[in-house]
Amino acid sequence: MKIVIASGKGGVGKSMLVSALAMLFNKKKKIVAVDCDADAPNLNIWLNEIGEWEKIIKVITSARPEIDYKKCNGCGLCVKNCRFEALEMVNNKPKLNRFLCEGCGACEIICPQKAIILKPVQNGEIRIKKTKYGFPLVSGQLYPGESGSGKVVTEIKKEAEKLNHEVMVLDSAPGTGCPVIASLQGADFVVLISEPTPSGFSDLKRVLMVVEHFKIPWGLVINKWDINLPLSNKMEKWAKSKLLGKISYDQEIFRAVSNLTPILETRLKAKKEIKKIFDNLNKLYG
Ligand code: SF4
Ligand code: SF4
After folding, report:
1. Cys bridge to 232: 143, 196, 219, 237, which one at CB 3.0-4.6 A?
2. Three-state DSSP class for 227?
3. Which of 148 and 29 is assigned the larger pLDDT?
4. Whether 133 and 245 share a structural domain
5. What is the pTM of this model?
6. Which residues, in sequence order, are CB contacts of 12 under 8 Å at separation 6+?
């Protein structure tokens, strides 16, 4: 069973919720926690697991063009056809800006002189460790300036799949892009988390379009519900029976994470609220 926690917007409490749900599921089932936010992984921080990783696996899921200048006749076709403007003509020869290149391969196909060949590049790594709670944590990191976070997420999930588990709890990247789609692939349920702000609600609706495209059942958690009561009520009415619960705004949550204290190890109100969300999730999904 795969449960993905996703949010259209970053900074709405997703990793906090994932860390707490993973610890709660761990009391009943064999679990694996997976951090799919390869651009900015932080689930280990919410679980107070900032020490060394037990295993690091290098990932090669991207490619970059290599230009053979002896074959190139300077026609400029590759530059014209690069949608990412990663190539420019300098002294009648194409020059690559590696930070703009998405490794799409269009330049290789278009080159009439066969002067361009795409070469694989190591663009990230997968990190694995057993947490102090007994369950494994699989995380990953896309290297700075590299592309292909969606493919890195797919590799992270493949490694997590190899570990013995009954429930996989996945922390998706924010937004609606490739890493989110890769996180949602094969999911049995999605917990969407948002906050009652205009941008939070609007981004929630956007990510829901992706979730519904894949026909995945979902539920909603409203974090910091009490910072904007009219909008919070509106979101509650909008979600109807899909509402799994609400978490109150509490500055102490930030203090807890600064001190590397997982929410379930605090006495904060959020702890009780998340336990209620966990119970509702179990009722809804068995
Ligand atoms: S398309 Fe090929 S031949 Fe033309 S400029 Fe690019 S590398 Fe050179
Ligand atoms: S691989 Fe794609 S993005 Fe990179 S330089 Fe070639 S056409 Fe541009």
Report:
1. 196
2. helix
3. 29
4. yes
5. 0.89
6. 174, 193, 194, 195, 200, 223, 224
- With a 6 A CB cut-off, is 115 part of the ligand 1 pocket? yes
Residue nearest to atom 8 of ligand 2 (CA): 82
Domain boundaries, position 94 = 62-121
C-alpha torsion angle, residues 208, 249, 251, 25 (rounded to 10)? -60
Residue of 171, 181, 112 lying closest to 140 (CA atoms): 171
Tell me: the pLDDT tens digits for 179-191?
Answer: 999 999 999 999 9
Distance from Cα 17 to the centre of ligand 2, integer Å: 38
Report d(CA 258, CA 119) in Å as an integer: 42
Q: Regarding beta strands 31-35 and 93-96, do their DSSP bridges make them parallel or antiparallel, or are they unpaired?
A: unpaired
Structural domains in the chain (count): 2
Candidates 72, 77, 85, 87: which one to mutate for ligand 2, based on the most atoms within 8 Å of Cβ? 87
Q: How far apart are the CA of 117 and the centre of ligand 1, in A? A: 11
pLDDT for 16 beyond 80: yes
In the reported structure, the alpha carbon of residue 72 is separated from the centroid of ligand 1 by a whole-number distance in angstroms of 5
Distance CA 159, CA 128 (A): 9
For the Cβ of 10 lying below 6 angstroms from any atom of ligand 1, the answer is no
Q: Which ligand is nearest to the CA of 85?
A: 2
